[in-house]
Amino acid sequence: MSTAAHGFLGVLGGMGPLATADFMSKLARNCTARCDQEHIPVLLYGDCTTPDRTASIVGHGPSPLPQLLSGIEFLNRAGVSAICIPCNSAHHWYAQMAQASAVPILHIAEASVSQVRVHNPKAQVVGVMSTLGTHSTGIYEQALRDRGFDVLSATPLQFETLVSPGIAHVKANEIDQAQAAFEQVALSLFDRGADVIILGCTEIPIGLQRECAAHPARYVDSTDALTLAAIDHFRRATAVR
């Protein structure tokens, strides 16, 4: 796939840095390229000083929107042809960012939901593991229910004692501790009837790498799904021209 003639993919990253690095790695691994020149050219804008998205959504911190819009403006001025944001919670401000962008912003939740039946064609019940902020926005619940899925989420106690601490462990590069917390939540969702779990926070796949590798049909990695959407976008652009 030759993509150089179709512009750069802009990545609005830094939320967090390890999740952005994971996105970049998966983008390269998923691209069916035979040499450097067949990969998707990427321009990364990584602002790790962006205020915490979940804290803002639940009313405990400043809005990240001004810095998100600064990143969108930078990438547009640089001439990218599409933008990915490997942070689920940042999509709470998707409408404002999309309005400010002259190029399409690929939506991570839409990309993830589209992968559910790729992983399990018979899936009816989908669990979602995410930040409390993303859960509060309802972006996954609405997208899944619109497609006829039943949805399960972590309990309030699990958010407080396992999910949020697990995400913090990943941000602190404490992957083993994160894994233990995330595996408990995943097991609980499967026990409650989930056929597939969407990992709707880009830190969570990092903590569940072992589980995802062992049982790929049971998990939709939102980071991976976003890379596939980006590759498909550039492939279609190549086909049109």
Automatic annotation (TrEMBL):
Protein family per UniProt: Belongs to the aspartate/glutamate racemases family.
Protein name as annotated: Aspartate/glutamate racemase family protein
Entry annotated with the keyword Metal-binding: no
GO MF annotation terms: amino-acid racemase activity
Top-level taxon: Bacteria
Keywords on record: Isomerase
